[in-house]
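Input set for joint prediction.
Command: fold jointly, output tokens.
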Amino acid sequence: MKVEEELKQIAQEVAVCTRCNLHYSRKKAVPGEGPANARILFIGEGPGFHENEQGRPFVGQAGKYLDELLGKIGMKRSDVFIANVVKCRPPGNRDPLPEELSACSEYLERQIQAINPRVIVTLGRYSMARFVPNAKISEIHGQSMQVKGRLVVAMYHPAAALHQGSLKPTLERDFSQLPQLIARAEQAPVYEDRPAEEKQQQPPKQLNLF
Ligand code: SF4
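tokens >
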């Protein structure tokens, strides 16, 4: 299956998913969006009020700030894929529960495998914990780690920086390192975790971020 088709298939499954209780309160599921050949994948936590209304990730104040952060490093939202660890809004924007994270995990894993990004940026504690369990974001933010051939960089969630202004310079400093990290990741051999027959169907990936 082509990457675009796989992403569409995942979005269709997410739209009608009843694997966890979050489906009871969702208005629109938020599977994530971005180009199928994105070299960078941002992973947030879960949809908020506006995302639940529109079915799109990061469309509220945190989304505007994310756009601003991307703009500061010469990137646009259309350059990157943006997803969340849970695809339906936790009521009242509460933290996702372990059983909800576990139920939704497979969708994100399939997105990662389909997009096969060189760099994954986790935004917030819950997406960080997926790759670096038991770490403290205050200790590892901005650091890059190799996870299955990809560079994973943990950062604070833009919403956290909006709530706590003192985190803004930290988040902006971490973002400013991204172009360098992406350039380094692009020079490394491509990591492929899709089956060989699927790889043969993929057109060459465009290195089009910079
Ligand atoms: S959060 Fe994930 S697992 Fe739960 S209902 Fe939504 S799509 Fe399904």
